[in-house]
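Structure ticket #2291
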Amino acid sequence: MAYDMYQEIILQHYRAPHHFGPLDGADRTGEESNPLCGDHITLRLKLDAAQERIEEVRFEGDGCAISLASASMLTDAIAGKTVAEAKQMTRDDVFGLLGIPLSPARVKCALTGFVALGKALHPEYAGSPG
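Resolution: structure written out below.
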């Protein structure tokens, strides 16, 4: 029963993702693709003046239900958080947001948005502007 509930939540996030669309004036951007499934996520952050808190987060892209739902749930989880809090998120946190077991083939789908977030949070490693 709980598994069915999580599947429905994933489908809702896929059909109407939260924080989806462009973000003008973003301070940080991260992109990630999963060529095996065709997923591509671009995640943008607008930070406060001190660059300590995520004031706004948006993502764009295409992908499977797991990829887009995961990115939607991830943006819900980090909106309004500090950059330090967002940097502490782990792969297991993402899997927990989804709430369902994933086949090995779907793990990369679920983590596409998370990897894009990592690139946005660590531009010194990702070559991202900002």
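Closing remark: Helices lie at 2-15, 65-78, 83-87, 91-98, 104-121, 123-126.
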